[in-house]
Amino acid sequence: MTESSGPQHPAVDRDSAAWWAALARHELVFQRCGQCATWRWPARAMCNGCGSFGWGWFPASGRGVITSWIVNHHSFLPGVPAPYVVLSVRMDEQADLVLPGAYDGPPDDPALEIGAPVRVGFSDLLGEPPAALLRWSIIQSTA
Amino acid sequence: MTRHGSGLRDRTAIAGVGWTEYSRNSGVSTLTLALRAVTAALDDAGLRLSDVDGVACHRVGDSVQAVLVAQALGVEDLRYHLDMFGGGGTSHQVVAHAAMAVASGMAETVVCWRAVNARSEFRMGGTGRPAPDALEFQYQLPYGYATPPQQYAMLARAWMHARGATSEDLGRVAVTQREHALLSPRAMMRRSLTMDDYLAARFIAEPLRLNDCCLETDAAVAVVVTSAERARALAKPPVLIAGAATGGGHTLFSNGRADPTVSAAADLAPRLYAAAGIGPDDIDIAELYDAFTFLVPLQLEDYGLVTRGETGGFYADGHAGLKGRLPVNTHGGHLSEGYVHGLNHVAEAASQLRGEAGDRQVPGATVALTTGQPGYVGGTSSALILRREESA
């Protein structure tokens, strides 16, 4: 990995490798228990609902709602210039499936609101290996 | 058999308390800080180095190993050793475990401390330190999202939204605690803070402003835990450990905690009160973990001290002040006394219960609730109820 501008690559572990590989292909997937069908994230071998070690990867709806967001007023980490937003998103699949991610919009966007529906998007990281991050956008109401 | 932890009730005590100076640059190692605080606490208790047979601390890769402190203290037969990985959520577990070790007879005198050069060497909010040894950081760091002010800003907005809390509500926490700190010779912050100052200060991670965030501090604080029986024979009035409880917390790992606005302390609190045989109405003072302002009203709710949604009025009416109904963070807390990762809350509670808190003394304080971080990010929470023994 070269010293690049742009965000750091994730520190992938043995449980999470498949999830990050899917993200690099612009696919959002989650594990789902083979026994009780509970969703879980981040990746791990055992269901914390029923204790089963049986599971599979399933594509996610890619939709959720904003549970919170922050506006960072200085650059906390190299490669991410301020100001920038980080969102916390609750997936439609399950109430305790909550993911952080970047926001596809300006930091002072008046559309940012707790409860606003969002759709997943992806942004590729520079350099190798191929990797992508989550970048959420607000679903505009069509009413 | 479940006894809600009441098997520990009043069997152990805090017999001594010690502090180093609080500073922005101690100029010494965390080993030196730990040794200074521990020996001060032993002196305070009227105990000798040779009395120590147990050691306990928490750290996050930012301080000296507990065993090296034991060796430096000259403990030859180390009967109890706890070197816990963790942040503020584990702070009160350290004291609870020391109490369990003493109550079980494994050890007789356990010193507990937190020693850190959090300003000059290992800034929690800094960018220069390696990512903590925690799996979840891989999902956060690439977004430029990893430091405590950011993680707690995320929680703060959710909590404020749910309760209808305003910036002014958080500001009153900061202003109240600064008033307390101004009465403490130990406190880092020596200048008054007004609401205008609070609101005019820059955002760190919106919605949190500068004075919503605690002070990264170089310091160590130690307490000595021994049996209640032995403590009664020592120099200072014993501060009984009436109850202790540990709880879980919120992490990214989907674990059934979908609502970030109610902390794991809400689950821990009933067990803690049952363990102590003491209820929320009996609490005279509360030293509540305050790495960030909003955690204080959040815990007032979750420990059943103030009705959910009414903490803004509680502060506006002065009830959290030293002359209020329930003085909160009487030392100024992490926001204004200094950030010693939870241990300074235990020490302040002990000082108040002994009547040694000087200008900030709450008259007649008999029962104290003191808490660790209520389970966010790190995933565990902990708290103690301490009480002064009624004189015979």
UniProtKB/TrEMBL annotation, chain A:
Residue ranges annotated for the ChsH2 rubredoxin-like zinc ribbon domain, each copy included: 20-54
The organism's place on the tree of life at top rank: Bacteria
Stretches assigned to the ChsH2 C-terminal OB-fold domain: 57-122
Pfam families, per the entry: OB_ChsH2_C, zf-ChsH2
InterPro entries attached to this UniProt entry: ChsH2_C (IPR002878), ChsH2_Znr (IPR022002), NA-bd_OB-fold (IPR012340), Thioester_dehydratase-like (IPR052513)
Gene3D superfamilies listed in its UniProt record: 6.10.30.10
Biological source species: Streptodolium elevatio
Name of protein: OB-fold domain-containing protein
From TrEMBL, chain B:
The protein's name in its UniProt record: Lipid-transfer protein
Species: Streptodolium elevatio
Thiolase C-terminal domain span: 257-386
PANTHER family: ACETYL-COA C-ACETYLTRANSFERASE, NON-SPECIFIC LIPID-TRANSFER PROTEIN-LIKE 2
Pfam families in the record: Thiolase_C_1 (PF22691)
Domain of life: Bacteria
Segments crossing the lipid bilayer: none
